[in-house]
Amino acid sequence: MKDLIRKYRENKLSREDLRILRDKLQSIPPEDLNKAVLEDWENYPAVNYDDDNPHKEKTLCDIHHLLKIERKGFSNSFRNISRNVAAMLLPVFMIATIYYYTHPAANPSFMAVTTEKGERASVFLPDGSRVMLNGSSSISYDADAFSRGNRNIEFSGEAFFNITKDPRHPFAVNATGLKVTVMGTKFNLKAVRKDPEAVLYLKSGLVSLLSEKSGKNAIVHPGEKAVLNYGNGHISISQPDQNENILAWHTKKLSFNDEDLYSVISTIEKYYGCKIIVEGANIDNSIFTGTIPTDNLQLSIDVIERIFNVRLKIKK
Predict the structure, then answer these.
(1) C-alpha atoms less than 13 angstroms from C-alpha of 103 in its C-beta half-sphere
(2) Cβ atoms within 10 Å, residue 192
(3) pTM of the shown model
(4) pLDDT of 18-64, one tens digit each?
(5) 122 is in which domain, residue-wise?
(6) How far apart are CA 279 and CA 272, in angstroms?
(7) What is the DSSP letter of 89?
(8) Domain containing 223 — which CATH number?
(9) Under 8 Å CB-to-CB from 230, ≥6 apart: which residues?
(10) Angle, CA of 92, 97 and 103, to the nearest 5°
(11) 181 with 171: CB under 8 angstroms?
């Protein structure tokens, strides 16, 4: 592990080294990771920069950018202090898809962050914008161009965007089959290549959605959902149903409005990826209006059992 950390720091990781490092990070206890990183920090010789060093400012900017990337797993509400310290250090290693690993000489300002299934990452961009990535998602951009006002990013997966307002420099998200252009706004975008459609939900501001296939453009207003059909390029805009829970992964809450037992169970099954079996024949005809957490399946089950007076069994 120490040798891999050293190679990472010196930018000498091979593809195989990177694979091994990722595997180790998935299995190593946070306390051990924390210890290993601190030992490397203490043993690594300090670098002295004089005020005229042309690389000083860029180095500091790179460090600040990395430290602003917060990454957390699917469920981390009860981590202790040492785990939080390790979680702060994890981004330095878990940005495993940064371009320079495989193209070290191509573009040193190219930045990319990718999340695996079950991971989430919060990325702060140079303009102060924040992108909260859901699992199996990625974002990339040219840091130098971005800092000069060219606010363009490449994106895949699902994320919630909180974009800093800048009328002179529109913010553009390029994803599979579409382009989203905004000035300053908050929106959720799910654009996965293998899906039949992309879905955008606008929380505030205005968004321009361009279909690459049809060449047509649609303006989305707050509270609206835009669906882009990848097959024909058609964009449809509607008001989402309250029980769709588009932002559940971001708010960490599943919301229900006058839903019966089986509707609630169906939503929980889809979100948690499990099968829930109702035990007993006497089913309460109650309806449920409220919220349950998205990061604690057992607590969700307990809530539903109490509300509907049933016994539930989880089958994963």
Answers:
(1) 10
(2) 17
(3) 0.65
(4) 667 767 766 767 566 666 666 665 565 544 434 444 444 444 444 44
(5) 97-240
(6) 19
(7) H
(8) 2.60.120.1440
(9) 176, 177, 195, 196, 197, 198, 213
(10) 110
(11) yes
